Automatic annotation (TrEMBL):
Keyword Oxidoreductase among record annotations: no
InterPro entries listed in its UniProt record: DUF7847
Name listed for the protein in its UniProt record: DUF7847 domain-containing protein
Transmembrane segments: 109-129, 149-170, 190-218, 230-257, 278-311, 331-360
Species of origin: Kitasatospora indigofera
Pfam families cross-referenced by the UniProt entry: DUF7847 (PF25231)
Stretches with biased composition (Low complexity): 396-412
Keywords: Membrane, Transmembrane, Transmembrane helix
Region (Disordered): 1-80, 379-412
Amino acid sequence: MTDTPGWAPPSSSEQPGEEGRPPAGAPTVPGQSSPIGSTPPPWGGGYGGPPPGGRQPWGGAPGGQPWGGQPWGWPQSPKPGVIPLRPLGVGEILDGAFSTVRRHWRTTLGISLGLAVLQQTVVVLVQWQSYENPDSVLPAVSALVSLPLNLLIGVVATALLTMVVSRAILGRPVTVGEAWRDSRPRVLQLVGLTLLNLLIVLGFAVVALGPLFGYLLATGSDRNPGLVGLLVLFAVAVVAAAFWILIQLSLAAPALMLEKQGIRAAFSRSRRLVRGSWWRVCGISVLGTVLVSIIAGIIEIPFSLVGVVMAGDELLGDSLTSGLDPALPLGALVVIAVGGVLGGAVTIPAGAAINVLIYVDQRIRREALDIELTRAAGLAEPGPSGPAEPGPTGPAAPAAPADGGDPAAARP
């Protein structure tokens, strides 16, 4: 771990099948006794609970519950930034993502607002050309040309916002210029990784739908219903396999940006981090996507309604005449685009932050990354029996035994 936003890959070997991890100072070998002769509370379950033996903590409330939900003297998880440095719950990941947007709004909105304006400008121009030249092929060509631009916008957003989130975890401010300086050396590799992901999706789409569409086109109206059903089942199975692989590779982008690895190493790293936790990563990713989409819809729907009202009879006439998606006048397109810009300004950084925090959570669970993050944030690491020892202004710590024995034996 260094002071820069990038996090080096762990030097020790990974244990992909191990989901739990002990707190700082606890033994890492199963069955090994604790350094101080007692077993500390497990991560994620012991904090905030009663101490061993059922004793009432000092300052406890009636009924055995401590005042404030935390026993006095019980080790607290440090929280220098947007998340506590311990294995995270689903709510903490989502809250950390939106806390990043709220606390670092100047940087996150500066990035996402500029990218959203560029993206919506392209959309408005394409749709306006469709309105002005309904029989021209120019709108279709413009739409195809806008695809690489949208891909590039997504890459830049991922690169910059990953660095913002990495600083937000440590509680450190970051400007747009600093985020760009830290991410610029990895942007080209991130472009390659994104293109490979796109090729994987297209490859699975061809394998899934190619046989079905080929058979339907070749046979015309003389089709075997049983064979069509089998081809549909095959397509569903291929789509399910593609989704499984995409979740396996979903943490490759933060691994590439933060660990400064190559494309192939980032894909392999993502698979190892997701292994054994596929359902958890999938569930949080899907929940985050749904939540971000709902928020975007809440922001954009009022602007869309105003745009429809502005179009008025012209919109109704086009829809009745063509039966297809009607083109809108420029004024209505601009109003709708404003809603898209505001929605993207909030949801683009939140979506990127969710992905990065899932990656951080997996590394905390498997590699005790929280200890390295605590050190990088400049915080004292809590011991297994309580909070950190007092600093220079407090009582002096007892000297270590001269014979090199157990330090706990020297404590009063």
